[in-house]
Amino acid sequence: MSTITLVLTPEDASRLYKTFQDSASPAPQYAEWQLRPENCVITRYRSGKTVFQGKDAEVYAAAFQIAPETTSSPAVSGSVLPQAGSDEVGTGDYFGPVTVCACIVDEKTAPLVQELGVTDSKAMTDANIRKIAPKLIAALPHSLLIVPPEKYNSVHASMNLNAMKSVLHNQAYVHLQDRYGLPGLCVIDQFTPPASYYRYLSGQKRIVRPIHFETKAESSYPAVAAASVIARFAFLSEMDDMSKAYGMEFARGSGAPADACGKQFIQRYGEERLKETAKLHFRNTAKITGR
Ligand code: MG
Predict the structure, then answer these.
(1) How far, in Å, from the CA of 169 to the mean position of ligand 1?
(2) Would you state the pLDDT for residue 35?
(3) What is the residue extent of each domain of the chain?
(4) Which of 50, 55, 60, 57 is nearest to 27 (CA)?
(5) Ligand 1 centroid to 47 CA: how many Å?
(6) Which of 35, 42, 267, 272 has the most neighbouring CB atoms within 10 Å?
(7) pLDDT band at 75, cuts 50/70/90?
(8) With pLDDT > 90 as the criterion, what percentage of the chain qualifies?
(9) How far is the CA of 261 from the centre of ligand 1 (A)?
(10) Superfamily name and number for 83-240
(11) How far is the CA of 247 from the centre of ligand 1 (A)?
(12) Which whole-number Å values give the CA distances from 283 to 62, 79, 87, in the listed order?
């Protein structure tokens, strides 16, 4: 456990908040907000102090301890072609794999991507994804990584989720580089500050640089939007296979329907086999097993 206290500018504080806003939790007294990403509690006080506490405090604080000009990427336009982009799917779903895709969009394929209406995969229906993704898969140079639940559980035992995502995105770019070469612009839909991303990669043999990091990148960069659609398609296909293999439907997300599916699964296959279909570190596991 370590504790790091930084005085952040309002801009840095809001950048930090936006990056991890999915993990926001009720703010304690005298605090503006509190975030609880994996292995860390980050509290922003009204005094301007921001406190990072927990096993990975250093990792989260790292991005804000060095000069701001090295952490924020220069402004880049989404219309620059060719461009590579990457995104991941499944990290918020209790059941199913995590999928990561990196792909390249160039002058020739950009019109197709636009024509297919690939803008925001989150706003697209599953049916639409199933229809459009095969066309993107056929047309775009891409690299797709699928981490099934059992593999995810064993990797997660020694690596937190952001570390795992960093390794997967980097790996997808390494494959893309080997197969097709990389364009000058590579964009990651940002899930962690750049300094943390590179710190997580410190043990890797090859680290692809430079990368442009941007939150909500799928709405500005066609390559990120396309990668997101392909990753979601792969996720859906894996879920289909799981449904066939176990003879039951698996709920998306991590809410009450996922709990209900978990209970049903345990009744049929036993608790021991939950690791084959679910990400065990989610709170759902405790709810389902009653422990
Ligand atoms: Mg994303």
Answers:
(1) 11
(2) 95
(3) 2-64, 83-240
(4) 50
(5) 32
(6) 42
(7) low
(8) 75
(9) 25
(10) Ribonuclease H-like superfamily/Ribonuclease H (3.30.420.10)
(11) 30
(12) 28, 41, 24
Res. 74: pLDDT tops 70? no
Model pLDDT for residues 114-163, shown as the tens digit of each residue: 999 897 677 889 999 999 999 999 999 999 999 999 999 999 988 999 99
The model carries a pTM of 0.75
Cα(192) to centroid(ligand 1), Å: 10
Number of C-beta neighbours around residue 115 at 10 A: 9
Q: What are the residues facing 99 on neighbouring strands?
A: 89, 146
- Give the model's pLDDT for residue 70: 39
Superfamily holding 2-64:
TATA-Binding Protein (3.30.310.10)
CA of 27 to the centre of ligand 1 (A): 25
Distance CA 278, CA 211 (A): 31
Q: How far is the CA of 56 from the centre of ligand 1 (A)?
A: 21
pLDDT at 119: 74
Least Cα distance to 175 among 109, 112, 98, 227 occurs for 227
